[in-house]
């Protein structure tokens, strides 16, 4: 952990290439009051900042918040066989798979977002995501492979969640395999921010790969100022947003992608086509009171497009609001 005097260049330097959003606090004068921790987690970098006059107390809080992020990753990653999601995806069809209460809650939230967005957000695209994952492939899969993956899946409507007391189960239906990659990061951010609040921290920022939650205001009661990264320039900030007690998430085609025959195939999928979404948006930024909702809403908005997303989001209790598109 570094107790650093913040300087704009240092913060932007950290953001470039790593974070979807670089943090640019306005107050650059008071030194030593902001304490930071950067850790690799959830396939990206978490950047945590706590404002506290006591460095030791801040360190304990930061470690606890980072622990929450690791905890959520361990439960919900699809890349590890022992996680809830890993076990679910490997279970025989038709079985009830016991999962943690938390995973069940995130799956419930994901189903809620699938319903609210007419299926543009779909947490069951894992079989399709695997075929297009920029980490493993550099060209579109064969048509036949794609067709069979798409036809096998009944999507999110086949997903069942049961919670009884402390126990929770998910039911594995044919063709359903979970991918919580569009929502779990936000859940982790909320968990980390809640943990900080529970430890008496009144002012903090929790950012994971560019999605973030602000706890309270920045020093001197000013809003936190965060920069939205330019989707075509890793060094560039296209817009600065002010935030007090709230969350912000950006989804775009610039995070993970491969190019084939001049076409960019990014990691956000269009459930209707079982293929990477291709539209006019390069990135969309959404705010909401909770990061779990901002995260899911941003992924959905990228697929829906600006106008359809605004229509879908209107009146939702989660209060997602599109604040920027590029
Ligand atoms: P995000 O960066 O939050 O927009 O999430 C992107 C990740 O969510 C991808 O890497 C996939 O794991 C997953 N995903 C891709 N397409 C969708 C979709 N249409 N609905 C829900 N999750 C998706
Ligand atoms: Mg998301």
Give a quick summary of the entry:
Helices cover 33% and strands 29% of the residues. The chain has nine helices and 18 strands.
Question: What layout of secondary structure does this protein have?
Answer:
Blueprint (H helix, E strand, L loop, with lengths): L1 E2 L4 H8 L5 E3 L10 E8 L2 E8 L3 H22 L7 H7 L5 E4 L1 H16 L9 H7 L10 H10 L7 E5 L2 E5 L12 H15 L5 E5 L2 E5 L8 E7 L2 E11 L2 E7 L4 E4 L2 E4 L2 E2 L4 E2 L6 E6 L2 H14 L1 H8 L7 E5 L1
Antiparallel strand pairs: 1-3, 2-10, 3-4, 4-8, 5-7, 6-7, 8-9, 9-12, 10-11, 12-17, 13-14, 15-16, 17-18
Helix pairs in contact: 2-7, 4-8, 7-8, 8-9
This protein binds adenosine monophosphate (AMP) and magnesium ion.
The site of magnesium ion has 7 residues, from strand 12 and helix 8.
Task: Kindly describe this structure.
With 326 residues, this protein is α+β, with helices and mostly antiparallel strands. Helices cover 33% and strands 29% of the residues. The chain is built from 9 helices and 18 strands. The protein has an 8-stranded antiparallel beta sheet. A 3-stranded antiparallel beta sheet has the order 2-10-11. A hairpin with a 2-residue loop joins strand 8 (204-208) and strand 9 (211-215). The longest helix is centred in the first third of the chain and has 22 residues, at 55-76. It is globular. The two termini are 34 Å apart. The relative contact order is 0.15. Bound molecules: adenosine monophosphate (AMP) and magnesium ion. Magnesium ion binds at residues 182, 249, 251, 295-296, 298-299.
């Amino acid at each position: 952990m570094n107790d650093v005097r913040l300087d704009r260049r240092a913060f932007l330097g950290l953001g470039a290439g790593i974070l979807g959003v670089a943090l640019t606090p306005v107050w650059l004068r008071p030194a030593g009051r902001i304490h930071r921790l950067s850790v690799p987690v959830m396939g990206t970098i978490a950047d945590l900042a706590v404002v506290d006059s006591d460095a030791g107390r801040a360190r304990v809080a930061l470690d606890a918040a980072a622990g929450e992020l690791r905890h959520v990753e361990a439960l919900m990653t699809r890349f590890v066989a022992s996680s809830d999601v890993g076990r679910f995806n490997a279970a025989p069809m038709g079985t009830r798979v016991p999962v943690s209460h938390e995973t069940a809650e995130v799956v419930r939230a994901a189903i809620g977002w699938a319903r609210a967005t007419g299926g543009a957000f779909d947490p069951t695209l894992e079989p399709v995501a695997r075929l297009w994952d920029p980490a493993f492939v550099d060209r579109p899969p064969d048509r036949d492979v794609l067709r069979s993956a798409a036809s096998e899946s009944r999507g999110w409507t086949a997903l069942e969640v049961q919670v009884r007391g402390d126990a929770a189960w998910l039911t594995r239906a044919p063709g359903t395999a979970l991918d919580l990659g569009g929502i779990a990061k936000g859940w982790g951010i909320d968990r980390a921010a809640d943990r900080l609040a529970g430890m008496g921290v009144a002012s903090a920022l929790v950012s994971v790969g560019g999605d973030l939650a602000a706890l309270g205001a920045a020093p001197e009661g000013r809003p936190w100022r965060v920069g939205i990264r330019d989707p075509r320039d890793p060094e560039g900030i296209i817009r600065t947003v002010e935030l007090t007690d709230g969350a912000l998430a950006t989804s775009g085609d610039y995070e993970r992608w491969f190019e084939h025959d001049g076409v960019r195939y990014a990691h956000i999928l269009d459930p209707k086509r079982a293929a990477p979404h291709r539209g006019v948006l390069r990135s969309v930024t959404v705010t909401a009171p909770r990061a779990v909702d901002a995260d899911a809403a941003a992924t959905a908005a990228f697929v829906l497009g600006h106008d359809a997303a605004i229509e879908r989001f209107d009146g939702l209790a989660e209060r997602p609001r599109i604040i920027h598109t590029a």
